[in-house]
Amino acid sequence: MAKNEKNVDSRKKLLEERVISISRVTKVTKGGRHFRFAATMAVGDGKGLVGIGTGKANEVPEAIKKGIQAANKNLCKVSILDARTIPHDATGVCGKAKVLIKSAKEGTGLVAGGAVRTILELAGIKDIVSKSLGSNTKVNVAKATLEALKSLRTKEHIALLRGIKEEEL
């Protein structure tokens, strides 16, 4: 086993896995109905690393396994301020689902529900307020939440992009 393969295996073991949704999909053919399962999974380490993925198979456990593999490939780093909240308010959109996330003061807790709460918990965010607008499809709400988290920028990152010192902002 190569050195980088060990790093990938150890990183995957640290990730927590959660089911966002499992749905039964039907394909109607002249021979009858064929049932399959689609599982949307979320993985995260609780320290700013989170990802979502979808897997489809004839059996639920297989679909979950494929969803976890897809989520591990789609991991992204999230900017977290003071190890508890986000640097600024953000909005994410996926299809007709729109998710608004706002930073909150210490002690507020995680004010979110459904798929948004799952994603934020796995990312390791402790104080935040969220509002889900538009469609309430679990998969699209989860993707919109991830889009909102990807759009976050810290002061250090913005200063680096502009080529100036953080104090000049």
Describe the structure.
The structure is a single chain. The protein is of the alpha+beta class and 169 residues long. The protein has two domains: 3-76, Double Stranded RNA Binding Domain, CATH 3.30.160; 78-157, Ribosomal Protein S5, domain 2, CATH 3.30.230.10. It is 34% helix and 35% strand. It has five helices and eight strands, in the order αβββαββββαβαα. It has helices spanning 3-14, 60-73, 114-123, 138-150, 155-162; strands at residues 16-29, 32-44, 49-57, 76-77, 90-94, 97-103, 110-111, 128-134. A four-stranded antiparallel sheet has the order 1-2-3-4. Strands 5-6-8-7 form a four-stranded mixed sheet. Helix 3 (114-123) packs parallel to helix 4. The longest helix has 14 residues, at 60-73. It is elongated, with a radius of gyration of 18 Å. Residues 1-6 have low confidence and may be disordered.
- The count of domains is 2
Mean pLDDT: 89
End-to-end CA span: 47 Å
CATH structural architecture of the largest domain:
2-Layer Sandwich
How would you sum up the major sheet?
4 strands, antiparallel
Proportion of residues in β-strands: 25-35%
Work out the helicity level: 25-40%
Task: Please tally the helical runs, counting DSSP H or I stretches of 4 or more residues.
Answer: 5
What would you call the structural class? alpha+beta
State the strand order across the main sheet.
Answer: 1-2-3-4
What top-tier CATH class of the largest domain fits best?
Alpha Beta
Low-confidence stretches: 1-6
Rg (C-alpha, Å): 18 Å
Number of strands: 8
CATH topology of the largest domain: Ribosomal Protein S5, domain 2
Order of helices and strands: HEEEHEEEEHEHH
Shape: elongated
